[in-house]
Amino acid sequence: MRKRKSPLLEFTDKGIYCSAAGVYLDPWRPVDKAIISHGHADHSRWGHKNYITYTDNAPIVKHRLGDINVTGKKYNETFSINNVKFSFHPAGHIIGSAQIRVEHQGEVWVFTGDYKTEDDGIATPYEPIRCDTFITECTFGLPAFKWTPQREVFHDINTWWAENKAEGKTSIIFGYSLGKAQRLLRYLDTSIGKIYTHGAIENMTEVIREITHMPQTTRITKETTKEEIRGNIVVAPPSAHGSTWIRKMVPYVTASASGWMTFRGARRRRAIDKGFVLSDHCDWQGLLQSIKATGAEKIICTHGYTDIFSRYLREQGYDARTEQTQYEGELGELDSSPLTLSKGEGEEHMNSNNADK
């Protein structure tokens, strides 16, 4: 391996930069050439001259960003820019999501973007990629985060819906319009009733229908009546909570599907009646298992509990550090009220879960 003057990937004020190729990965400021991991707004931003992304993500970013110049590449398809090799690999985060592998002069880095290890039946399942340096999110990088299997969570969601219907109430469940919403739609039990959707979710789901199967849904419009909706379920983005839009749903019961529902305080802050722990990100064990599977010695922690998680990795013998980015992870699901833990609270969660190490 030839010695290079600068790292293969550098963290700059515009984003993660590969100087050897003159290209950025998920940049947060406008650049000439951007390689995009997935369609969430914190990773795929407007203003770049050229976008390169996984094939299934291309229509998603076009829908979100409008008239852009985007090129789609298949999983495991190698493409070169200035003799630097790039390829996309399944991240399991949401439909269309990908890890980005970068290889140059015998050195391999992998940028995960966002990822999860549980197969949700919609996104192509996560695949560990061997590398020298692994750039990982750690949105839920505390032992307190331990996900219940998806099938159990959806059993609880559908039971909740059936109980609400028996009481003559409409069920409203909040989830991010790209990813979480489609995961909810796929596994809601339509034998209980009809699925209604907020316009933002229906618009995105129409795009997703061109990529994978989605159940029948009904868009809520000005003409939709309270009587039509009663007893059924409504899937809406978190921003709809507390808005005038949901007044026509009365009487209703609300729920949120998010990893943050692990903490009761998150549900109270959002004035949500019910919380279901369902995340499109790795839990604590998922992160650790993924890192081990890469064989990487160097780990760079970006968004989430970066300081706590990277320190734990160093204790396990990894060369781990943190870098600042403008990625939000699942904080966007809490709108303008992100859940944070103080350093002391983070320590408490680490110490109370030593048995999980």
Topology record:
Layout lengths: L9 E2 L4 E3 L4 E3 L7 E4 L13 E5 L3 H8 L4 E4 L5 E3 L2 E7 L7 E7 L2 E5 L21 E6 L11 H17 L3 E5 L5 H8 L7 E3 L1 H10 L9 E2 L6 H4 L3 E4 L15 E6 L6 H6 L4 E3 L7 H11 L3 E7 L1 H10 L3 E4 L20 H9 L6
Parallel strand pairs: 3-4, 4-5, 5-6, 10-11, 11-18, 12-15, 12-16, 13-14, 13-15, 16-17, 18-19
Antiparallel strand pairs: 1-2, 2-3, 7-8, 8-9, 9-10
Keywords: Exonuclease, Hydrolase, Ligase, Nuclease
Protein name: Ligase-associated DNA damage response exonuclease
InterPro entries: MBL, RibonucZ/Hydroxyglut_hydro, Xnuc_lig_assoc
In short:
With 357 residues, the chain is of the alpha/beta class. 23% of the residues lie in helices and 23% in strands.
How does this structure look, described?
The protein has 357 residues and is an alpha/beta fold. The protein folds into two domains: 10-145 and 280-356, Metallo-beta-lactamase, Chain A (4-Layer Sandwich); 150-276, Rossmann fold. Helix content is 23%, strand content 23%. The protein contains nine helices and 19 strands. It has a seven-stranded mixed sheet with strand order 7-8-9-10-11-18-19, covered by helices on one side. A hairpin with a 2-residue loop joins strand 9 and strand 10 (107-111). The protein is globular, with a radius of gyration of 21 Å. Residues 344-357 have a biased composition (Basic and acidic residues). Keywords: Exonuclease, Hydrolase, Ligase, Nuclease. InterPro entries: MBL, RibonucZ/Hydroxyglut_hydro, Xnuc_lig_assoc.
